[in-house]
Automatic annotation (TrEMBL):
Similarity comment text for this entry: Belongs to the multi antimicrobial extrusion (MATE) (TC 2.A.66.1) family.
Keywords, sorted A to Z: Membrane, Transmembrane, Transmembrane helix
Keyword Transport attached: no
Highest taxon, organism lineage: Eukaryota
UniProt keyword NAD present: no
Location in or out of the cell: Membrane
Origin species: Triticum aestivum
GO cellular component: membrane
Membrane-topology descriptor: Multi-pass membrane protein
TM annotation in the entry: 20-48, 69-94, 114-137, 144-163, 169-189, 210-230, 250-277, 289-309, 321-346, 358-378, 384-407
InterPro entries according to UniProt: DinF-like, MATE_fam
Protein's UniProt name: Protein DETOXIFICATION
Lineage of origin: Eukaryota, Viridiplantae, Streptophyta, Embryophyta, Tracheophyta
């Protein structure tokens, strides 16, 4: 919602300003997510597992001592500093890579916007890492509260700096950075009341698991971001009007998709806790419910967007040319919502069982295929070709998630155990996992899996 609000305020300044800020936001998101998303996902699983198996309290403070928490915070601080330097010093280079040359009318304002946004990178990484930690605690209320309070500052600062002080997109960048630091400080303060932030000795930190799993997810994130970058680059090459329309569609697409990602986060934390203590029945129940509610939510979002997309687009711009281009891509944004929902939820299920290697390898393959579509389709179909490529990306991610559940080896092998008798007689545990379209995976498990009984 904060990004949508920022886009709406900037959109009122004109198509050129919206396109310039869109390029800057895209570059910031691309570079920050390379490391941020792996850290966020891994922290959620590691903290949940740590609490289930190794939770202990500090002898004097009574706070939880969890190596996974301290390790995540140290990594976040280091990664945030590196990202800030890279974005600030390399803003010109990144713009050129996105197809925005120094002679482009977008170049000067986009470079200034990106340089200012770079200052918020450390706070942004720490904010995401702490969110992952709270998710591991199965506490999603605290992050929502403090993120909401932090974004209230943006509600005040955005119109004040953009219009009151007439700073334009520079004021938008300053407002966003300020809100990021407010959120990070509030989250750290809240976390410090329930967990030890740093151990007495630095050798107690455990980076091995983060670096191993993070290395695999880094490849996954790079694959997705490369695909998204190609899409943004192809849109930017078609001019400010097409780029402004793409920015509107992309922000709505991402914002709505994050509603499904919330379901994936919940499933990940619940599955990680249950999987760590071998409670496979609960793992299966959570997976079934998450997929069913994800499909229902995706369909509801698709219908809602289809009905209201024209009105939503007018919140961002009044330019008739931009609105005309937006309408040509609206069908992709709406129709892809059920696919997006299931793709995110499958990622959450696989993260919950720490199946990071498969997710990374499958996504790399998916990214290569989708990138090929993005390189060629826009040359024939224009901006609609960009959205065909992005829809391909999410569809293949969903297909990869379904495929993993059907494998008889790996972390989901308990779904395919042969029926077995127990002392109390045969038991029956059935669940139906519903996926998109014609894909219906019916899993039947009778009795307890052999490795659980042993």
């Amino acid at each position: 919602m904060a990004q949508l609000m920022e886009t709406a305020y900037i959109g009122k300044l004109g198509a050129l300003e919206l396109a310039s800020a869109g390029i800057g936001v895209a570059i910031f998101n691309i570079l920050s997510k390379i490391f941020n998303i792996p850290l966020l996902s891994i922290a959620t699983s590691f903290v949940a597992e740590d609490i289930s198996k190794n939770a202990s309290k500090h002898s004097t403070s009574g706070k939880l001592e969890l190596p996974s928490v301290s390790s995540a915070l140290v990594l976040a601080a280091a990664i945030g500093t590196i990202e800030a330097l890279a974005l600030f010093l390399g803003s010109g280079l990144f713009l050129k890579l996105m197809g925005v040359s120094p002679v482009s009318p977008m170049y000067t304002s986009a470079r200034l916007f990106l340089s200012l946004r770079a200052l918020g990178a450390p706070a942004n990484v720490i904010m995401l890492a702490v969110q992952g930690i709270f998710r591991g605690f199965k506490d999603t209320k605290t992050p929502v509260l403090f993120i909401g309070l932090g974004n209230l500052s943006a509600v005040v600062l955005l119109p004040l700096l953009i219009y009151g002080f007439k700073l334009g997109i520079t004021g938008a960048a300053i407002s966003t950075v300020a809100s990021q630091y407010i959120i990070a400080i509030l989250l750290m303060w809240s976390l410090s009341k329930r967990a030890v932030l740093l151990p007495p000795k630095m050798d107690q930190l455990e980076f091995g698991g983060y670096l191993k799993s993070g290395g695999m997810l880094l490849g996954r994130t790079l694959s997705i971001l490369l695909t998204m970058t190609i899409g943004t680059s192809m849109a930017a090459r078609q001019g400010p009007t097409a780029m402004a329309a793409h920015q509107i569609c992309l922000q709505v697409w991402l914002a709505v998709s994050l509603l499904a990602d919330a379901l994936a986060v919940s499933a990940q934390a619940l599955i990680a806790s249950s999987y760590a203590i071998l409670d496979y029945k609960r793992v299966q129940k959570v997976a079934m419910f998450a997929l069913q509610i994800g499909l229902a939510s995706g369909l509801a979002l698709a219908v809602g967007l289809y009905i209201s997309f024209g009105s939503i687009a007018k919140l961002f711009t009044n330019d008739p040319q931009v609105l005309a281009v937006v309408s040509s891509c609206a069908l992709f944004v709406c129709a892809s919502q059920p696919v997006n929902a299931l793709a995110f939820i499958f990622d959450g299920l696989h993260y919950g069982v720490s199946d990071f290697d498969y997710v990374a390898q499958a996504t790399i393959v998916v990214g290569v295929i989708s990138s090929l579509v993005l390189l060629y389709a826009p040359r024939v179909f224009g901006l609609a070709g960009v959205w065909a490529g992005l829809t391909t990306l999410m569809g293949l991610r969903m297909a990869a998630g379904i495929l993993r559940l059907l494998w008889k080896s790996g972390p989901w092998s308990f779904l395919h155990e042969e029926p077995a008798e127990t002392k109390a007689g045969p038991g029956v545990f059935e669940s139906n996992i519903t996926v998109a379209g014609a894909a219906l995976c019916i899993i039947r498990i009778r009795g307890e899996p052999a490795h659980v009984r042993s």
